[in-house]
Write a structure and sequence with these properties.
The protein is mainly alpha-helical. The chain has helices at residues 18-41, 45-67, 73-81, 87-99, 103-117, 123-129, 149-172; strands spanning 134-136, 141-143. The chain has a single domain (19-172), classed as Four Helix Bundle (Hemerythrin (Met), subunit A) (Up-down Bundle), CATH 1.20.120. The chain is 66% helix and 3% strand. It has a two-stranded antiparallel ribbon with strand order 1-2. Helix 1 runs antiparallel to helix 2 (45-67).
Length: 173
């Protein structure tokens, strides 16, 4: 009996320092941002928005990796909890890194980030709504969210605001 070969794709590269991890996230963020631009130019607004949000998440993770030892098991587990493309969880971890155990500072930074940077946008809902139809029991139907050029422009403003916020945080410590 012959053994069935598994298909393998890609080449695994090992990252052995927090700087390498940070640079990898940063490169992915830049690629996601470029991908969003290409999709937007083709009027694929939902797909472009998805990649804009992905870029935001990866810029945050890149920033986190510059501040903590992400190779430490505890912090690797914390980063792992943000997997699944969760911008919200990544932002929470960012705030924990900067505020430590200071709950007042966490709340102040969270308020500033939510109101002034991401404009109280519910990214958990948005991320799923961009890619899937959603069932609503109240109306016994499915709905889809369709974005347009204006929506992508607003998300791009949020992305730029977030990048500025992260740069300002870098200067604090």
């Amino acid at each position: 009996m012959t053994e069935i070969q598994k298909l393998r794709v890609g080449k695994k590269i090992f990252l052995n320092s927090r700087i390498e991890v940070s640079e990898n996230y940063f490169q992915i963020a830049q690629n996601d941002e470029r991908t969003a631009s290409i999709l937007e130019s083709q009027k694929l607004y939902n797909q472009a928005a998805y990649f804009l949000i992905q870029a935001m998440e990866k810029y945050v993770k890149s920033h986190i990796a510059t501040k903590i030892n992400v190779l430490n098991k505890y912090f690797a587990d914390e980063i792992g909890k943000t997997m699944g493309h969760s911008l919200n969880r990544s932002l929470e971890l960012l705030l924990k890194v900067y505020s430590g155990n200071n709950k007042t500072l966490f709340e102040q930074m969270n308020q500033q980030l939510q109101v002034h940077v991401i404009k109280n946008l519910n990214f958990r809902f948005l991320n799923n709504s961009l890619r899937y139809s959603m069932y609503d029991e109240r109306y016994n139907n499915y709905s889809v969210l369709l974005l347009n050029q204006y929506d992508c422009a607003e998300l791009r403003k949020i992305l730029e605001s977030l990048k500025n916020y992260l740069n300002d945080l870098s200067r604090l410590r």
